[in-house]
Each structure stands twice: as C-alpha cells, then as structure tokens.
Amino acid sequence: MSPKFIKIMIMIIVSVTFSFFKNGVMAQGSADMMHRRHHIEKEGVSVKVFKNTLIAVRENNWGKVEEEIGRLRNNLAEYRTFFSVDLETSLNEAVKAKRAKSLLKLLAQEVFFSMKSQFKVIVDSEISDHLDSEARLKKAEDGYRDILSGNIKRKNPDAHSRVEAAFLDARVALGNSGINPLMPQSPPDLKRFKEASAVIEKEVRSVYSYF
User: How far is CA 82 from CA 29, 78, 85, 119, 147, in A?
Assistant: First the structure.
C-alpha cells in the first residue's frame, strides 16, 4: 500500500468524521431550538391573555373576558404557592362587576408575577438547565416589553433603561452551554442572575407601586 494511498484514506476519514460531527451538532442545535420555541410559546399565556382581554373589553365581550381569565388558572395557582398571593379572587370579582380598568391593572400585576415566577424557577434550579432558563428569561422579558414597559418608559425613562440593562445582565449570567461550537462555553453565574432579577423587580415596582 503506497504512502500516497494511505494519505488519501486518512484525508477521507478526517473529512467524513468532521462532516458527521458538524451535522450532529447542527441537528442537536435544531432540536434544542425547536424545544425552546415550543417552551416559549407554551409559557407565553400571560401576554396572550392580556392582549386578548384588552380586545374583548373594548368589544364589551365579557363572556370572552371570562374565558381568557380562565386560561390563567395554572399561573394563579402557582403564585399562591410561590408568593402567597391570591389574584384569582380579585380578577373574578372585576370580571363579575365588569370593572375594565381594575381588571387590566390586575392583569398587568399578573404579568409581573409571571416574571417573578420565571426568575424564581431559574434561581431554584441554579440554572442547571440552560435552555429552560433561557426560555423562561425570554418569557419574562417579553412580558416586560409587551405589557409593562410602556408606562415605565413614559413615567420614568431612567428606570426603563435600568431594567433593559438588567435583562441583558441576566442573559449574560445564564452563561453559554457550549451547544453552539462557534461560541466559547461559559458557566452560569447564579449570584449575578439574582442581582439582575432583583433590579428588574425593584425598578418595575418603583412605577407600578400597587404591585
């Protein structure tokens, strides 16, 4: 067997091995992305309910409002367990009395507790599941930007800037799991995440004082 033939065979083996590794990483990354998208969609109920309820209230469709509030049942039970907060009674009373303003304020509060809940789960898990933590943080950030940020930007732009910076800091604190081979792996920083999430909660409460 000639040295040239051996060299060619080695090159083929290396090429096939690299191709297999690359495709495997890409497939795993694709599967992880699908999991993440599914999780985010599944967890986005607070934002969806707020938006749908706002439309239903404007249309004076209180049957639809009641239906939307019912979709929060699991969330509301979680807040009772985590924070000893009963939003369900207040929400049901607001729907029954058709108090639109009170209802929307309560739903904004529900979005805030949804954020708190996501932070708590991430902290309690010690960021052991990077993708789950990333999806939960994304859900909390969506709740802030879609529902809560408008009032904060209008009433206290500096607080909004601090919240945005804290979300960025929280994202960095999650670290990088190393799934993407183009980015260096870095461990999570639980202390940094706790500090960032505490800033977010504090700044939001500084404007939404009734939370």
Answer: 33, 6, 8, 11, 22
Task: Specify the amino acid at residue 125.
Answer: S
Task: Find, among 90, 85, 81, the residue nearest to 112 by Cα.
Answer: 85
Cα–Cα distance list, 157 to 124, 145, 153, 164 (Å): 31, 13, 4, 11
Give CA–CA dist 132/38, Å, rounded: 11
Domain coordinates in residue numbering, the chain: 44-207
Q: Greatest CA separation found in the chain? A: 90
Q: Give the pTM.
A: 0.78
- CA torsion sign for 107, 111, 117, 120 is negative
Whether the CB-CB separation of 78 and 87 falls below 8 Å is answered with no
- pLDDT tens for 130-156 read 999 999 999 999 999 999 999 999 999
Tens digit of each residue's pLDDT (9 = 90 or more) over 93-114: 999 999 999 999 999 999 999 9
The CA–CA distances, whole Å, from 40 to 48, 62, 144, 187 equal 12, 28, 14, 23
CB-based contact 65:88 (threshold 8 Å): no
